[in-house]
Amino acid sequence: MYQATIRRSVEFEGIGLHTGQFCRLRLHPEDNKGIRFIIRGEYIPANYRYVVNTKNSTDLGKGSVGIKTVEHLMAVLYMLGIDNLVIEVLEGCEVPAMDGSGYLFYKRLKGLVQKLDKEKEFIQIKDPLVIRNCTAKIEALPSDHFSAEYVGSIEGLLKDHRAKYKGNAKGLVFARTFCYDYQVEALRKAGLAKGGSLKNAVVLGKNGNVYNTEGLRCKDEPIRHKLLDLIGDLSLLGKGIKGRIVSYHGGHSLNYEFVKSLAGL
Ligand code: ZN
Fold first, then answer.
1. Cα–Cα distance between 175 and 170 in angstroms, integer?
2. For 112, which of 6, 68, 145, 215 could close a Cys bridge (C-beta 3.0–4.6 Å)?
């Protein structure tokens, strides 16, 4: 299996979900050195070593510069097999929220994948590995192929529902970010979700009601989104994974702990 980049430069722009700022990125082909963001002349590798925050989003930083909410774009890059890229941050300091999912990244990038003459690097899961916190756990199981699963619940809608990824990016990329109505005020008070609206996020009520007039894109859209987040966070390992990864109610913080454990194998 070979590494890949993109054929030509591509731009994405829009409001950042948490900062509310207008953000603009330009992705450039690269034939080595993995995926790196460049912000005001400073390179930040898309690697777990540069994670500076995992509360409500996965953010990278180095010195005085940083880039927020990298997980949806990173998930799309991982699923497309793109592992070398320079992502120039032209405006703002967050990956644009787009429609709250990875769909627009996927749509623009899928036809631009360019194979490189370089073998892809993998971490092979040889023995089961489990990491947990008080409410969640993530396990890695041996397999010759990458697959990921997320088991989660949506209040009033789904209980311990399992979403699976076995190579079909289309089944995940459309799933939008979400929150519950009772979380909105707390997020805003924490200075987050400043760019959040019903145009780029699903807002759910406790009884399973959906505030967005168009409803959900599929019944388990929020669970699929959690799986998208997981894959984006796993990509920060900086290598492909040969193994079956299963998250039970995990979030960005546990994903990050898990990636650090994988890196130590
Ligand atoms: Zn997300």
1. 10
2. 6
Q: Domain locations in the chain?
A: 2-119, 122-263
Ligand 1 center from residue 118 Cα (angstroms): 31
| Residue 252 a catalytic site member | yes
Instruction: Please identify, in words, the CATH class of the domain defined by 122-263.
Output: alpha beta
* Ion ligand 1 nearby residues (CB, 5 A): 177, 229
Task: Tell me how far the alpha carbon of residue 113 lies from the centroid of ligand 1, in angstroms.
Answer: 23
CA 67 to ligand 1 center in whole angstroms: 15
Could you tell me which CATH class the domain 2-119 is placed in?
alpha beta
pTM attached to this predicted model: 0.97
Positive or negative, the CA dihedral 238, 46, 12, 28 is: negative
Which tens digit of pLDDT belongs to each residue from 155-206? 999 999 999 999 999 999 999 999 999 999 899 999 999 999 999 999 999 9
Nearest residue to 58 via CA among 251, 258, 252: 252
Nearest to 73 by CA among 94, 48, 52, 43: 94
